Amino acid sequence: MTVTRPPADEGIPGVTRRHRLSDLYHERTNFQFVAHSRRWAVLSGTLLLVSVVALAVRGLNLSIEFEGGTAWVVEMQGDRDASVAEVRELLEPLGFADSKISVLTGAGGQSVRVQAEVVEDPTRRAQAGLAALAGIEAAGVQFAPAEGGGGTFTFTAAEDAEPTEEAVAGVLADAGLRGPEVAIDGREVTVTVEELPASPLQQVADALAGYAGVSSASVSVSTVGPTWGETVTRKAAQAMVIFFVLLAIYLSFRFEWKMAAAAILAVLHDIVVTAGLYALFQFEVTPATVTAFLTILGFSLYDTVVVFDKVAENERTLTATGAPPTVRWSTGPSTPCSCGRCRRRSSRCCPSCRCSWSAR
Fold first, then answer.
1. Cα–Cα dist 88/97, whole Å
2. Within 10 Å of residue 79's Cβ, how many Cβ atoms?
3. 85, 179, 184, 267: least CB-packed within 10 angstroms?
4. Do the beta carbons of residue 329 and residue 15 sit within 8 Å?
5. Which tops the pLDDT comparison, 179 or 110?
6. For the chain, what are the domain ranges?
């Protein structure tokens, strides 16, 4: 086997002079990561400490998809400016002063977003109760509002269900609907109510519409049950654990167990730091954020595997100069791979990390 020695340090960027941006563009990089390992350790430790403290003290600002609840969103009309204090004062008489209120600014102007715990609408509560009584899904209970107030519920009961007028009236009474007119024709049930109780959902929507200068129909209302949010969070955590287990098994066979442990620690480091930034600045964590986290995870893992592959190759081809030089000659030339510059000169790249080291 032919054994080569690593090139001398003279004339290598990062040793005799500082790097320039053009070095990164033309793949003339050989950063001395190992020589400044203490600096990187201090920087990494500081970021981890700040991230952990932010996560412990402030926590993540989870969106409605993860926490569950009801959210109202309305865009401000014209040049109106929104204020969190004004919106909170507006909602206080309605019992929503403790809601999570945020003012968002975009290209189309400002918008107000109010998030609270799940708010049960009397109509939806009545639909759910009638569906349970009839042995059907809640979607099978139709409600048609009347112009002067009130409305009509219609549904078809299941074959093994026998709804009675007393049972239907009791379900509606639990939802706050009084004095219903119930008509039962076989399995077909029609319930008419003259007046509906005030809906908290509509009250908040009307208040926000008046504040924004728009109609109530322009207020977007969405509700996510807490069970759904907990299910999504639990499945995401399970998927992450399975991913790390499979990753450790693959890297242990591909390289060795120490490299597998280092790769997992590197990925966890990047995720904790990113999550810490979200907690520190209270950015909202949405499903799109989870996608971004997975992207960071993928790139972090890719860079780690590229470096490890180069380390394994140099261990076979370079003279036994010790671990630090081997790592240095593996991380330095691999840097352009992380910046996506190698695709422009793939003909010059080595097969392990696609960098241009072999052309030098």
1. 5
2. 7
3. 85
4. no
5. 110
6. 21-60+228-359, 69-117+200-224, 122-193
Query: Strands, DSSP E only, in 8-108?
Result: 61-62, 69-75, 100-106
CA neighbor of 150 nearest in space, from 181, 192, 195, 203:
195
Task: Tell me the three state secondary structure of residue 254.
Answer: helix
Structure confidence at residue 161 as a pLDDT band (50, 70, 90): confident
Cα–Cα distances (Å) from 9 to 96, 309, 325, in that order, read: 67, 22, 11
Lowest-confidence region among 41-50, 115-124, 309-318: 309-318
DSSP-derived secondary structure for 82-144: --HHHHHHHHGGGT-TTSEEEEEEETTEEEEEEEESPPPPHHHHHHHHHHHHHTS-GGGSEEE
Q: Is the pTM of this model over 0.90?
A: no
Counting DSSP H helices and E strands in the chain, the numbers are 11, 10
Q: Which tokens hold the place of 297?
A: 């995870």
Query: Closest by alpha carbon to 333, among 13, 2, 4?
Result: 13
Q: Is 75 helix (H, G, I), strand (E, B) or coil?
A: strand
Lowest mean pLDDT across 49-53, 157-161, 252-256, 261-265: 252-256
pLDDT band, very low/low/confident/very high, at 47 (cuts 50, 70, 90): very high
Provide the greatest CA pair distance for the chain.
Answer: 95
CATH for 69-117+200-224 (3.30.70.260, 1.10.357.10, 2.30.29.50, 3.30.390.50): 3.30.70.260
Structure-block tokens of residue 268: 């966890």
pLDDT tens figures, 226-235? 666 677 778 8
